[in-house]
Amino acid sequence: MFYFILVCILSAxxxxxxxxxxxxxxxxxxxxxxxxxxxxxxxxxxxxxxxxVIGRYNSDERSFVPVTVQESVxxxxxxxxxxxxxxxxxxxxxxxxxxxxxxxxxxxxxVQQRMIGCELLHDEPGRxxxxxxxxxxxxxxxxxxxxxxxxxDWKWPVIKxxxxxxxxxxxxxxxxxxxxxxxxxxxxxxxxKRVMAKVKPRVIKHYRREAGGVQKTCLATGFYPxxxxxxxxxxxxxxxEESITGGELLPNLDGTYQMRKSVELSAKEQRERHTYTCSVxxxxxxxxxxxxxEPGPDPVIIVPSVLLLLxxxxxxxxxxxxxxxxxxxxxxxxxxxxxxxxxxxxxxx
Length: 349
Fold this sequence. Notes:
- By secondary structure, this protein is of the alpha+beta class.
- The chain folds into 2 domains: 194 residues, Murine Class I Major Histocompatibility Complex, H2-DB, Chain A, domain 1 (2-Layer Sandwich), CATH 3.30.500; 91 residues, Immunoglobulin-like (Sandwich), CATH 2.60.40.
- The chain contains 7 helices and 16 strands.
- It has an 8-stranded antiparallel beta sheet with strand order 4-3-2-1-5-6-7-8, covered by helices on one side. Strands 9-10-14-13 form a 4-stranded antiparallel beta sheet. A 4-stranded antiparallel beta sheet has the order 12-11-15-16, with no helix packed on it.
- A hairpin with a 2-residue loop joins β6 and β7.
- The longest helix has 29 residues.
- The chain is elongated, with a radius of gyration of 38 Å.
- The protein starts with a helix and ends with a helix.
């Protein structure tokens, strides 16, 4: 369930897009405090390459543990990642305790969340970003790119001095961003087969009659990577988005994805006799895939009562034939066996 939530976040966040030639490395970290009965570590972190979970860390184990890479773990690399995540842990703890005091929280469970990561755009370093939230409310955002442009948005009170903030800016540009890009390149090399895999979508159309109308649905499923363009067309033109339901990208259990879109038509709209098409484009497809969402011939359904009638009519027909055959009057035909028999017969007459 936790991984499912992460995938939904990735799908909804434009900054985490992994298009062809674009990849990302992200750390999703959570710090819990305030309620000792919660059966979870104080701090947990999940590291993701694009949409693949490659490792995890928690405050109980205090070590980065790879979960997908098949090669032997590089000790230096593991130590570097463990140290970096520990730093995130300490920073989040300090900020969480300050916010609890500043916002006058006293009881209950308090949740501090942070998402931090970087991007490669066509093998060139892209931007790095940090987002933070406390008890479900965002309060800090920082964006940085290699051109030196940096944007920081504080919604919480600034708890550091000017000198500390300047040092944080320097660390972001000269330590965190280069380290993130370096690890991203390494994991791309290790996970190249999975990251670059292409699986074609299986497209299923569905036509369902409803009271007063019909619903036409297009489902694309089993595709990878997750980026897909699924469009419903009316007479060759895109259907108004306000008329469409669905469209969310959802994960399958095998690591592929699915997307479903539907349009509902009233009886009046059906009489207008428009044609509806499902149009799909994906990295795994050489050409655009267009599938008509029109009903086929209705199947002939034979219910048990009809079968019973057919059986009864069959018995009646057989009975009539039998009766006609055996109700004729019996005719006696005398066949003489010899001439003497013929004479005897004549004398008797």
